[in-house]
Write a structure and sequence with these properties.
The complex is a heterodimer of chains A (118) and B (113).
Chain A: E1 4-5, E2 10-14, E3 19-21, E4 24-25, E5 33-39, E6 46-52, E7 60-61, E8 64-69, E9 74-79, E10 88-95, E11 106-108, E12 112-117
Parallel strand pairs in A: 2-12
Antiparallel strand pairs in A: 1-4, 3-9, 5-6, 5-10, 7-8, 8-9, 10-11, 10-12
Chain B: E1 5-7, E2 10-13, E3 19-24, E4 31-38, E5 42-50, E6 53-57, E7 64-68, E8 74-78, E9 87-94, E10 103-104, E11 108-112
Parallel strand pairs in B: 2-11
Antiparallel strand pairs in B: 1-3, 3-8, 4-5, 4-9, 5-6, 7-8, 9-10, 9-11
């Protein structure tokens, strides 16, 4: 089974509007972390936002917020006031076995290609 | 503060050759991970190092190997290259053992012909 599912291969959004990118995950761990990355055409993976499984508040970083619904195992990324520079691939990722001795290994979804229209 | 630096950025190799890719993490970061990105398989974990020790290895053949030096710089090596090894290889570094933050380099794009 897929550990990270991103059901939207591509999305379009009008400049200055908000957009939600979907991500669902599958884990039996109680302690885990969820990440969103942006990958422009240059290839670099840019860290956007992180949510720990025990965090009660939804994470926010500037125009990015993570809508974390633990019971539904979803971690959607919301981008407010879209800009042309937001056009890129967006990846949801999960780190399981969160412990001091655990290995830091990210499992990625297939990504969503976001296109911002002027 | 300098980011994660990967060298070279682009590489073309012939089947059967071997290749070494380099990753210099952000200063002070001791955890380094490597990922392979292909259109078909997406992003797949290769290995992770912390303080010169390999903590985990992904499901890749033994032709893929890596190491980390005392200054946290890391190298990965692929021997007997195959066409299917053509990919973007990404390195990520983290300042924390639990990896709550991971910063990626721009990657090395390897083409095997």
């Amino acid at each position: 089974a897929q550990k990270i599912t991103q059901t939207q291969p591509g999305m379009f959004v009008q400049e200055k509007e908000a957009v939600t990118l979907d991500c669902t995950y599958d884990t039996s761990d109680q302690s885990y972390g969820l990440f969103w990355y942006k990958q422009p055409s240059s290839g670099e993976m840019i860290f956007l936002i992180y949510q720990g499984s025990y965090d009660e508040q939804n994470a926010t970083e500037g125009r990015y917020s993570l809508n974390f619904q633990k019971a539904r195992k979803s971690a959607n990324l919301v981008i407010s006031a879209s800009q042309l520079g937001d056009s890129a691939m967006y990846f949801c990722a999960m780190r399981e076995s969160w412990s001091g001795a655990g290995s830091y290994q990210l499992t990625f979804g297939k990504g969503t290609k976001l296109s911002v229209i002027p | 503060k300098a980011g994660v630096t990967q060298t070279p950025r682009y590489l073309i190799k012939t089947r059967g050759q071997q290749v070494t890719l380099s990753c210099s993490p952000i200063s002070g970061h001791r955890s380094v991970s490597w990922y392979q990105q292909t259109p078909g398989q997406g992003l797949q974990f290769l290995f992770e190092y912390f303080s010169e020790t390999q903590r985990n290895k992904g499901n890749f053949p033994g032709r893929f190997s890596g190491r980390q030096f005392s200054n946290s710089r890391s190298e990965m090596n692929v021997s007997t290259l195959e066409l299917g090894d053509s990919a973007l290889y990404l390195c990520a570094s983290s300042p924390r053992r639990d990896g709550t933050e991971a910063f990626f380099g721009q990657g090395t794009r390897l083409t095997v012909v």
